[in-house]
Amino acid sequence: MKKNLFLCFLFFAMMLSLSAQQARISIFEALSDTSKTEHGKVVLYQDPRLSRLIQSKITGVPYTANYIQKDGFRVQVFSDNTPRTARTDAYKIEDLIRAKRPTLPTYVVYQAPFWKVRVGDCSTDAEAQELRSFILSTFPEMKNETYIVREQVRIPAPY
Prior knowledge:
Blueprint: H1 2-20, H2 27-32, H3 48-59, E1 67-80, H4 86-100, E2 106-111, E3 114-122, H5 125-138, E4 147-156
Antiparallel strand pairs: 1-3, 1-4, 2-3
């Protein structure tokens, strides 16, 4: 009796496993599929970013607007924890960097108790080294505080 019960349970588990392996599709794909409809037609008008966001949830790859997030490198150019001046100094340095190179991504970050300024979205250490060299040649006064840090960076999406 126990053996039959075990075999039934095993068979049921295998059937669940097989049904779970079917391809997952988004609601938009399911509604747009006209092969299974008996009546009517559904037309969806939507921002393409929404489809990419849904696809990122299905695939597990993070999606942020036209960017994906991944492990990478940034160059930290400022870090201070002086309560009265650190925030103001961080934003001044951000403005200074943006004035010299407006297309360079610049981030002001508060990680208690420090205000930090980090620049760039580099995929590799070599890119970060090149960016650090540029910053040091442009802003030699930042020499003592400029170094490379590992962080989640934003890379343009391939699609």
